[in-house]
Automatic annotation (TrEMBL):
Name this polypeptide is given: HNH endonuclease
Gene Ontology MF terms: endonuclease activity; nucleic acid binding; zinc ion binding
InterPro entries tied to this protein: HNH, HNH_nuc
Annotated organism of origin: Bifidobacterium longum subsp. longum
Segments of skewed composition (Basic and acidic residues): 84-104
Domain HNH: 46-86
Organismal lineage: Bacteria, Bacillati, Actinomycetota, Actinomycetes, Bifidobacteriales
Keyword Nuclease included in the entry's annotation: yes
Length: 111
């Protein structure tokens, strides 16, 4: 599988597919993003179906990412996108975040 892409998550590590699968299984294919309840301030995980595995802390300046399980978690497409946008330094995404999150959670189900 030799494909090049500008996608930040394109992996050069041939073991990535296996690592990814293992993390998804560990996290029960549920998004591990910590959500704070608007009203109570209680924290809980998102829990939406996850199909992305993300690095909690990304390496800086082109160094290889830390692929150890403690640095990886499953995320739903929404939170993965949000985190990636945040990492890109798009502050304006932050401003829209609350509204979009409310919209997201009002969905009856994730397809
Ligand atoms: Zn999520």
């Amino acid at each position: 599988m030799a494909w090049s892409s500008s996608n930040r998550d394109a992996r050069f590590n041939p073991g990535w597919e296996r690592t990814r699968k293992r993390i998804l299984e560990r996290d029960h294919h549920r998004c591990q993003w910590i959500v704070t309840d608007w009203h109570t301030g209680a924290k809980h995980i998102c829990g939406y179906p996850a199909n992305e595995v993300d690095h909690k802390v990304r390496a800086k300046n082109g160094e290889p990412d830390d692929d150890s399980p403690s640095n990886l978690w499953a995320l739903c497409p929404y939170h993965h996108k949000q985190k990636t946008a945040r990492e890109s330094g798009e502050a304006r995404v932050e401003k829209r975040r609350s509204r979009e999150e409310a919209e997201w959670y009002s969905r009856p189900a994730f397809r």
